[in-house]
Amino acid sequence: MLQASVALGDGYDLNRSLRLGCALAAGVFLSACSSSSVKGASSQDVPSIPVKIAVARSVSLSDTTDYVAMLKSRDSAILMPQVEGQITEIRVHSGDRVSPGAVMMQIDPTKQQATVNSQEHNRTAQEANLKWAQSQYERTSGLYAAGVVSKQDLDQSKSALDNAQAQVRALEAQVQEQQVQLRYYRVTAPTSGIVGDIPVRVGDRVTTTTMLTTVDKPGSLEAYIYVPVEKSPQLKADMPVQIIDGAGNVLADSRISFLSPQVDNTTQTVLVKARIANNEDKLRNLQFIRARVIWGMRQGPVVPVLAVTRIGGQYFAFVAEEQNGKLVAHQKPLRVGEMVGNDYVVLEGIKPGDKVIVSGTQFLVDGAPVAPQG
Questions:
Q1: Number of structural domains found in the chain
Q2: pLDDT tens for residues 114-131?
């Protein structure tokens, strides 16, 4: 009885194991069949990704180079004294507008005024001597006509008169010179304009090399552009130049008005000048600014900024191309130039007429089918 029950138990466990094994095998088979059918369906019919497409267009582009330039006023005067002395009065402030001849500063003229007074006294004394010599000559001439004095006496009287006249003329010239020198002690505005910074103060002693201030006349400026000598063969007179701000906006248009005939020995650059009209006073004297030299025009493709992505310093864009009757996205590396409005100038990678994908690029991979919208 014990053996029979054991045999029955072993048979029961064996049948149970067989049923479990069959169930597992059936499950694996069904799973394999299901995955195989899904794979076959996906390979035959993958849905296209809806995207927007823009055609790369060809536009006229400027071949340009940007340089750092300095603006200088064509009507700016630096005031330096023509005499030495101590400043006793400053009549203007920085930013004041002055007219030609307006007195701006006064240098102590006491010593010079004393010199002028001394010369004028000498002239007055010499004029008295001239009157006496004149009367002596007239008296001698009458006596000579009456035969009282000799011809020699007449000649001596005439010589004394001529000498007195020459001395008076010399003193008059000296007085005039000293009076002109006296006017230099008043510093006046050479032209109309705006007073710049005034680095001196009342009481300072100045020399002929001391800068007192500047007078800048609003209006035309001149851009000083230093072009590397390698580009100098391409420079020509009347070549277009643009003054632009930090955002790339054009502030002024001009043309090259001067080309230096020599190269700067220290920087190996060529000086180029361009006159800038500053009617709205947006620019300032001695301001550093970007100057864009336009070498010429060319045709080139542009693509929207939204179509371009940057990965690891390299620019890319997806282009829709026909493949087996369908549009397929292909990722192409680009070399881009400057921005023109909302477009990138493409130097390499895309041709005019290419269908550039501008939306949905975050869902694309190379070779993915796409369907254009709109």
A1: 4
A2: 999 999 999 999 999 999
Residue 307 covered by a domain: yes
Task: Please indicate, yes or no, if residue 33 is contained in any of the structural domains.
Answer: no
Extract the tokens encoding 175: 């007085």
Containing structural domain, residue 349: 49-59+299-372
CA distance 191 to 77: 8
Instruction: Measure the CA–CA gap between 349 and 365, rounded to whole angstroms.
Output: 18
Q: Which residues pair with 98 in a beta bridge?
A: 193
DSSP state of 215: E
Q: Are strands 76-79 and 370-372 parallel, antiparallel or unpaired?
A: unpaired
The reply to whether 304 and 368 lie within a common domain is yes
Does residue 209 sit within a domain?
A: yes
Which residues neighbour 71 within 8 Å (Cβ) at sequence distance 6 or greater? Answer: 221, 222, 223, 224, 276, 283, 284, 285, 286, 287, 288, 289
Supply the CATH number for residue 212's domain: 2.40.50.100
Q: Model-level pTM?
A: 0.54
Residue 17's pLDDT band (boundaries 50, 70, 90)?
very low
DSSP string for residues in 86-155: EEEEE---TT-EE-TT-EEEEE--HHHHHHHHHHHHHHHHHHHHHHHHHHHHHHHHHHHHHTSS-HHHHH
Task: State the CATH number of the domain containing residue 315.
Answer: 2.40.420.20
State the average pLDDT over residues 260-277: 92
> Amino acid letter at 35?
S
- Using DSSP, state whether 26 is helix, strand or coil: helix
- 7 within domain boundaries: no
CATH at residue 262: 2.40.30.170
Rg (the chain; Cα; Å): 48
CB 104 within 8 A of CB 98: yes
